[in-house]
Every structure is written in structure tokens, then in C-alpha cells.
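Example 9 (inverse folding). The structure is encoded as follows.
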């Protein structure tokens, strides 16, 4: 916090006033998963890192939305975030769909600094977006067995 003293004089009378300048609101500097990330796990957490220490504000929310149709798939109370200094960690409420692009929105003032200045809201579908992992097919025993047989030296394997 910056301060200054302003002094004015008129007719041989001086008045001094102390001025205090409050810092700006906390700024979101790093998000995880990173903006435009791909192959993000369908379970886990969102991490928000600000440029200064923050606390959560009750009654404010973080919204996880599906980019294809802008539907809200999860509404997470900011007060559910675990905050340590400049970092807030938010656990997802459930699994996400695979191969799906999501974006995160956040209410203004969901996090605030020690002077009660709240963060600005996120309303864009491009500020913080990510795509979940692709569907993967697990190999079956039929896929693996011929390789095992060859490696083990079995003589009755037709390749």
C-alpha cells in the first residue's frame, strides 16, 4: 500500500491530509490446466495462481462449461477452493467427458486480496479452455498373446 501526505495552505493556515492508495485487484497469472491444453485428464483439479495472496469469497462461483454448446456442466462454489498464498485449487465435482473442449468462467470477486479487492470476472470461452484426453482402447488378450508366445519361444504359434 502506498501513502502520501498532501499539505495545503491558505491565509497562513495549513492543513495536511494523509492519502493511502489501495493496490489493484488480484490478477490471475497462471492457470492449470493451461489455456488451450490438450489431453487433460477427465478427473482432477483446476489451479488458479494470482499475482498476490488471496482468500475465497462466499457466494461466488466457478463455472465449467462445454465449449460445443456453452452449457454449464459444473458450478463449483469458490468457497470450496483450497487456498495457500497466491494459489487456489478447486477439485472437479465429477468426471468430465473424454475428447471434449471445456472452458472456465468465474464470478467477479470470487477471490480477493487483503484489501478486499476482488478479481475480475472471466466470461470468455477463450480465456481459459482445455480439451480432455482422447478415448483409448485397451488391448485384449488376443492382441497380446501372439507376442507373448513368440517371446516365450513357443513352437506351435502360427504367425
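The amino acid assigned to each position is listed next.
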Amino acid at each position: 500500500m502506498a501513502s502520501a501526505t498532501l499539505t495545503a495552505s491558505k491565509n497562513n493556515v495549513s492543513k495536511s491530509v494523509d492519502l493511502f492508495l489501495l493496490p489493484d485487484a488480484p490478477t490471475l497469472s497462471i492457470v492449470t490446466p493451461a489455456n488451450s491444453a490438450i489431453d487433460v485428464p477427465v478427473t482432477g483439479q483446476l489451479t488458479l495462481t494470482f499475482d498476490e495472496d488471496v482468500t475465497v469469497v462466499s457466494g461466488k462461483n466457478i463455472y465449467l462449461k462445454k465449449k460445443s454448446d456453452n452449457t454449464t456442466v459444473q458450478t463449483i462454489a469458490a468457497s470450496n477452493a483450497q487456498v495457500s498464498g497466491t494459489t487456489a485449487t478447486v477439485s472437479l465435482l465429477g468426471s468430465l467427458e473424454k475428447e471434449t473442449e471445456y472452458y472456465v468462467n468465474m464470478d467477479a470477486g470470487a477471490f480477493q486480496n487483503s484489501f478486499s479487492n476482488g478479481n475480475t470476472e472471466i466470461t470468455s470461452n477463450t480465456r481459459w479452455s482445455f480439451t480432455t484426453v482422447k478415448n483409448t482402447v485397451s488391448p485384449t488378450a488376443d492382441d497380446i498373446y501372439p507376442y507373448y508366445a513368440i517371446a516365450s519361444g513357443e513352437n506351435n504359434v502360427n504367425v
